[in-house]
Amino acid sequence: MAGNNIARAGATGGVVERRSIDYIPLTERHGKAWHQGPFWLTGGFMLPSLLIGFLGPSLGLGLVWSLVAVVCGMGFGTLFMALHANQGPRLGLPQMIQSRAQFGSRGAIFPLLMAVFIYVGYNVFQMVLAGDAVAMFLSGGRVWYLVFSVVAVVIAVVGHDLLHTVQRYFSYLIIVIFAILTVAAVVRFPLSGATPVSSGFTFSAFLAQFAAAGGYQISYSIYVSDYTRYLPQDLPEGKLIGWTFLGGFTGAAWLACLGSLIASYVPGPNALTELYHIGDGIFPGFGVVAVLATLPALIGTSGVNAYGAMLSGMTIVDGIRRVNPTLRVRITGVVFVGVVGALISVTMPADYMSSFEEFIMIMVNLLVPWTAVNLVDFYLVRHGRYAIADISDPDGGVYGRWAWRGLTAYFGGFLAMIPFLSLGFYTGPMTTALGGADIAFIVGLLVSGGLYLLLSGKIRNNPRTPGGQPSGVPALHTLG
Q1: Exposure string over 399-428, b if 16+ CB within 10 A, otherwise e
Q2: Residues 383, 479: contact at Cβ < 8 Å?
Q3: Are 132 and 272 contacting, i.e. CB atoms less than 8 angstroms apart?
Q4: Angle (deg, nearest 10), helices 271-282 and 109-135
Q5: Which residue windows are transmembrane per the record (predicted)?
Q6: What is the pLDDT of residue 7?
């Protein structure tokens, strides 16, 4: 009961979380399934989501078709992301350390490294966007990157419960302001006398918008269990997955659809400038409110990124040399991640941002086979039965250091993706044949997931009894 009080105090009394990559005992579990809704709504309600919606109109896709592609793509990608939510309360572990069951304690280091790069990379983008938003009205330049980085790090240091509280209450503010902005945007463009920039349909443009939206949402898969692992183990699976899907889909799809609307009427739009004009069209001064309303999600989610990078980084080190997951180690990890992200934001020349964005897209593609293998293992191969003590063992326990099935499926899936990739320095032959649409993430999901299922027949037919459990861990839950 004392542990439970400590955990709850993290959200209400400012007590710093003490857990990190270790198992969350049932006595410390708390929270409700619906909390995932506002948490992921805020996580998806960021300027990068708005930019996703610009793609379809920029390729000549009409507004209606752009909206359909955004909604379908976001729904497809969010489904895979939401399925990871069930793993947190069942296993009581962060998301990426669970990869040891599929790849081994050493083999999991590769997807873990990709996750760290994505966390830090997203933080760089978000700090730059937050700084640009403030720079529209205040001086200070890149000093704002440092200010916002410090705020994000403080939130992440306090930990899990404060991150949930911040994201939840930010969501209420965001919904109110952007509901007003969305109505204003719908009124503004059709009544402005302008004609849409594009009004046609091509299958390649539709596919490109669908794939961009879907791939964007799948990249959130590396986060999910980090923020469900404190939930009670007996939460209904459908309820938890449903709330995660609703929040993740609503936040990202709403903003991306708004982006498609804007880009259908404004050639080469600037996200912050257009939000300012829409807001000021309501009444003078509301444009400032509209732009600054983007800051809570950017800063709060930067704290989420710093927290996730700390968990993944600790897991990497632990796979090489055992880590004692103390409070000091956790805080050191969060601060280190925050410092690295802030330094990159401050020192990176503006003309390198497009190259850096390309680098992050490569990392996202590298994680698509991971999510396929991880979900197939959990739902179709082991049916939720894992040896928690062995996952937490740097030597891998029954899962070993190198798990050939997962690694084969992972790299097989990525090799299959290569002909379908579209990057600044490379365009695959299948992408060219599809008119430029990058559907690599769909190929990666199908090939890696299918290959892992095929290779894991022996495990499915002759499941090994899980090894020992940490003190206080009940009999493992089996999915119904």
Answers
A1: bbbebebbbebbebbbebbeebbbeeeeeb
A2: yes
A3: yes
A4: 50
A5: 39-57, 63-83, 103-122, 142-163, 170-191, 197-219, 240-266, 286-308, 329-347, 359-381, 402-426, 432-455
A6: 37
Lookup: tokens for 299: 């800063």
Whether pLDDT at 234 is above 80: yes
Q: Name the token pair of 443.
A: 């190929």
Residue whose tokens read 């109109």 = 57
266 touches 274 (CB < 8 A): yes
Tell me the pLDDT band of 239, cut-offs 50, 70 and 90: very high
Percent of the chain with pLDDT over 90: 54
Amino acid, res. 86: N
- pLDDT tens-digit series, residues 304-350: 999 999 999 999 999 998 989 899 999 999 999 999 988 888 887 76
Task: Supply 377's token pair.
Answer: 């293992």
Model pLDDT for residues 47-70, shown as the tens digit of each residue: 889 989 998 898 888 889 999 999
Lowest mean pLDDT, pick from 60-64, 138-142, 339-343, 425-429? 138-142
**Distance, CA of 378 to CA of 231 (rounded, Å):** 18
Per-residue DSSP letter, 200 = B
H or E, element range at 141: none
CB contact at 8 A, 308 and 155: no
Sorted by where each begins, the domain ranges of the chain are 2-461
Taking the model in full, what pTM does it have?
0.88
Instruction: Write the DSSP symbol of residue 226.
Output: G
Tokens of 424: 């600044």
Radius of gyration of the chain (CA): 22
> Within 10 Å of residue 239's Cβ, how many Cβ atoms?
13
Query: What is the chain's length?
Result: 480
Overall fold of domain 2-461: Hydantoin permease (1.10.4160)
Count of H-run helices and E-run strands, the chain: 22, 2
- In 45-108, which residue ranges form alpha helices assigned H by DSSP? 47-52, 55-58, 63-83, 87-91, 100-103
Q: Find the mean pLDDT for residues 236-255.
A: 95
